[in-house]
Amino acid sequence: LNMSSSVMNISEHLSCPLGFGHYNAVDICILETVVIVLLTFLIIAGNLTVIFVFHCAPLLHHYTTSYFIQTMAYADLFVGVSCLVPTLSLLHYSTGVHESLTCQVFGYIISVLKSVSMACLACISVDRYLAITKPLSYNQLVTPCRLRICIILIWIYSCLIFLPSFFGWGKPGYHGDIFEWCATSWLTNAYFTGFIVCLLYAPAAFVICFTYFHIFKICRQHTKEINDRRARFPSHEVDAAGETGHSPDRRYAMVLFRITSVFYVLWLPYIIYFLLESSRVLENPALSFLTTWLAISNSFCNCVIYSLSNSVFRLGLRRLKHKLWSVPNVF
């Protein structure tokens, strides 16, 4: 009797969106726990690696994108740390505060951090666009002071845009409901959702698509010009220039393709479900959980794509690995 009342008490507060949980032998949401614990570990480990590499490779600080990549790494790291809240709840560790407060604060923090991460992705795309389209005036346009101001504004804007969630406007965007109160009592609002999508998700998605599409076009055009020149003047010099110019352009275009593809694959399902749920067109706990944590997984993918595509970063990673391997030899 005590065991059944204990299970009943837990199920009142804990929700298993995927529908597999509260087994007699193991009273936890098994699939949800596996997904969240795995993502939490990957996000924290991946972004800690990025942060340590930046400390080990001073050359990385000479790149303007490093400001945004580091900001994104810290925001994504805090996403991973914040994910410990639902992880501990799934494993029946008490958070020590009221469930509704935990739910609201956690939802707000996750939404703000995801917003900062997404805004940094958009800023990186704008930075690369300016570097390619305005190479002569780039250093005057993009200065360290302006970059710092931009990063401060990103944090302020992200904090402000989700603040109405504390004043009854509705759920800010976290839908992977582990807490029962989040799923049943804290609902999304169509107007608040439209507000967030119009002021955050849609502009960021448009900026990323616009800038990378134009960069991709410029890379293609540059490659075509080199090939035409090589066909017109098949000399050794032009051939050599074509070989050195073609490969980096092609690689850069492929990196851009991967960046945009991963961004849209991970974020579009979340944004679409966010709109459908708020309009009361579709309500599915499993779909809600999967789309939310798919978007959160972008916090791990960011550090892999943006950092490992940089040759200087890879050099810093090798230095970090060398330092870690040399530590035991000291003792």
TrEMBL record:
InterPro entries listed in its UniProt record: GPCR_opsins, GPCR_Rhodpsn, GPCR_Rhodpsn_7TM
Entry membrane topology: Multi-pass membrane protein
Swiss-Prot/TrEMBL keywords: Cell membrane, G-protein coupled receptor, Glycoprotein, Membrane, Receptor, Transducer, Transmembrane, Transmembrane helix
Gene Ontology MF terms in the entry: G protein-coupled receptor activity
A GO CC annotation given for this chain: plasma membrane
Primary localization: membrane
Gene3D superfamilies tied to this protein: Rhodopsin 7-helix transmembrane proteins (1.20.1070.10)
Limits of the G-protein coupled receptors family 1 profile domain: 46-306
Subcellular location field: Cell membrane
Pfam family, one: 7tm_1
Keyword Transmembrane helix: yes
Transmembrane segments: 34-60, 72-93, 105-126, 147-170, 190-215, 255-276, 288-313
Family in the record: Belongs to the G-protein coupled receptor 1 family.
Name recorded for this polypeptide: GPR52 protein
Species this protein is from: Hemiprocne comata
Gene (UniProt): Gpr52
